[in-house]
Recover the amino acids of this structure.
């Protein structure tokens, strides 16, 4: 009971602290914006810097962009042009497609931002958090964003860097939708594991955009396959050998009985050879019966079975084909992680 | 003993009789055969066993009512020794009541009389037989083999020595030609009749028969 109370209290405290931190970063942003609007630029700069200085989880990207915009504008009006440029560069790197609202910010702010945006070459990647797709048939999509015209390569690699498939290579003026059908370069479905979707400048330079990447966790979900159709009940295609052997046995046993009768019924007497004639006749009859009942093909059943077998085989082939198609289109679940800067390989 | 046998046969026939439907049918059988008799009874064989042989003709008529039948049979022929010094007439007659509880089994009972007749004396055997006959088809509906065993429930003979155990058996094959009103039968039978003081008479017969009508 006591332990449970302590755990509950700790959880509430930790959760509450996180909410408090988020709220306070947001409040600081609000206070900074109000200070900016009141032309109290020093106070606004301090508040906005503090809001941005909080833990990265404190503000969402959209709020961080807003804070950076106001901070850049504040620095500009404080006469700190270099600081304003640095802030706007940070903003462009955060979201290359971001634009300050021209209804809120005066032209000197937006012009400086555009100047910085043109000078700052940035790349970003936007992917849906979870995508479910059937390989070959459906596609995973990612949007590549650039602050200015950039020549990029979009590559899917394993977490250890092993290339899986190149998805695009070429210029991106503003944004580009890149899609992936779930297959590797070899044409097989991607196996379970962690992958990186990397967007890299084709010619890396010191002042060029930094490569970005998104962690993708891929999991295969095997498709349902159809059960094979049950084999139809085929008719016997040959007569049974049972009657043949029963006939032979009847003849041989009766013949043996004829031979043995005097020994059984009149022991110690010399019997004539007459019994052998009957025994031979019955024995021969047994062999006649054996050959008369010898297993032979039942043509009508053979024909009927053949048509049944053909129909069954067609069904079976259809199911096999359908299953092969289903197995080719593996279902993938792609979960995207956060977007990060990729390490420069050539530096 | 005889009464028990009759009751047993009638009891086995009861289910067939109870379920009987339809009309009775008649069947006739004509036999042509050859008989060998070997007698080593003390009375007959002062100087060793007597061996006789000869052709016989016979026949049997039956009234069949589903699984139940009543029949009368007769067989007759003249037997003689190989050197023709001994000659006897053989006459057999029998009355049979038969039941067929299952298609492959026939059980019957009835009195049987056999007589060896010479100019001076007639040796007459009278006994009640209980018979069991098992059939096995070789070719369905056209070729059937059978084995029949019988034993006397009681026996009498007009010899001083008196009758002892009497038993026998028969094995053969029946051919029913397709779409013909008759059947053909080839059979071998052996009967052994013992006398009390020792010795016996053994009769063997091979016969070909034609049967017309129901079995």
């Amino acid at each position: 009971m006591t332990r449970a109370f302590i755990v509950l209290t700790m959880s509430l405290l930790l959760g509450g602290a996180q909410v408090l931190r988020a709220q306070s970063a947001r409040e600081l942003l609000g206070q900074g914006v109000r200070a900016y609007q009141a032309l109290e630029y020093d106070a606004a700069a301090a508040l906005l810097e503090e809001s941005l200085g909080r833990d990265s989880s404190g503000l969402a990207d959209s709020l961080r962009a807003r804070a950076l915009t106001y901070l850049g504008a504040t620095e500009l009006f404080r006469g700190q042009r270099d600081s304003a440029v640095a802030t706007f560069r940070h903003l462009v790197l955060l979201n290359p497609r971001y634009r300050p609202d021209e209804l809120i910010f005066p032209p000197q702010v937006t012009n400086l931002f555009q100047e910085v945006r043109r000078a700052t070459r940035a790349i970003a990647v936007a992917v849906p958090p979870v995508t479910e797709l059937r390989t070959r048939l459906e596609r995973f999509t990612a949007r590549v964003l650039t602050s200015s015209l950039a020549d990029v390569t979009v590559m899917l690699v394993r977490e250890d860097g092993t290339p899986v498939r190149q998805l695009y290579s070429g210029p991106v003026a503003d944004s580009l939708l890149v899609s992936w059908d779930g297959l590797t370069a070899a044409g097989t479905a991607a196996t379970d594991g962690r992958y990186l979707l990397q967007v890299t400048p084709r010619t890396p330079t010191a002042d060029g955009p930094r490569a970005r990447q998104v962690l993708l966790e891929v999991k295969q979900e095997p498709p349902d396959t159809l059960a094979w159709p049950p084999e139809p009940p085929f008719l016997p295609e040959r007569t049974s050998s049972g009657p043949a052997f029963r006939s032979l046995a009847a003849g041989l046993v009766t013949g043996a009985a004829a031979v043995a009768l005097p020994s059984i019924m009149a022991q110690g007497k010399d019997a004539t050879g007459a019994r052998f004639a009957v025994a031979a006749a019955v024995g021969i009859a047994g062999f006649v019966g054996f050959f008369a009942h010898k297993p032979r093909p039942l043509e009508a059943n053979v024909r009927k079975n053949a048509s049944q077998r053909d129909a069954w085989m067609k069904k079976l082939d259809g199911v096999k084909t359908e299953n092969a198609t289903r197995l080719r289109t593996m279902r993938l679940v792609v979960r995207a992680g956060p977007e990060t800067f990729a390490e420069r390989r050539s530096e | 003993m005889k009464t028990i046998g009759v009751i047993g046969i009638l009891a086995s026939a009861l289910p067939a009789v109870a379920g009987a439907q339809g009309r009775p049918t008649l069947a006739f059988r004509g036999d042509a055969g050859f008989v060998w008799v070997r007698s080593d009874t003390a009375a007959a064989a002062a100087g060793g066993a007597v061996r006789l042989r000869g052709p016989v003709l016979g026949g049997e008529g039956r009234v069949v009512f589903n699984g139940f039948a009543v029949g009368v049979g007769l067989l007759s022929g003249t037997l003689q020794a190989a050197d023709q010094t001994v000659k006897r007439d053989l006459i057999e007659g029998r009355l049979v009541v038969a039941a067929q509880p299952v298609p492959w089994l026939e059980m019957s009972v009835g009195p049987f009389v056999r007589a060896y007749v010479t100019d001076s004396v007639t040796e007459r055997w009278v006994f009640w037989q209980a018979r069991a006959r098992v059939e096995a088809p070789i070719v369905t509906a056209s070729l059937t083999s059978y084995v029949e065993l019988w034993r006397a429930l009681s026996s009498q003979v007009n010899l001083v020595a008196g009758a002892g155990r009497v038993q026998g058996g028969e094995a053969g094959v029946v051919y029913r030609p397709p779409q013909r009103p008759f059947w053909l039968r080839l059979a071998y039978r052996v009967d052994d009749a013992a006398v009390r003081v020792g010795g016996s008479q053994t009769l063997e017969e091979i016969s070909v028969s034609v049967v017309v009508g129901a079995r």
Notes: Residues 24 and 51 of chain A are 8 Å apart (CA to CA). Residues 242-327 of chain A form one domain. Chain A has three domains: 13-119, 123-221+331-341, 242-327. The helical segments of chain A are 2-37, 41-53, 61-77, 81-94, 107-119, 242-265, 274-292, 299-328.
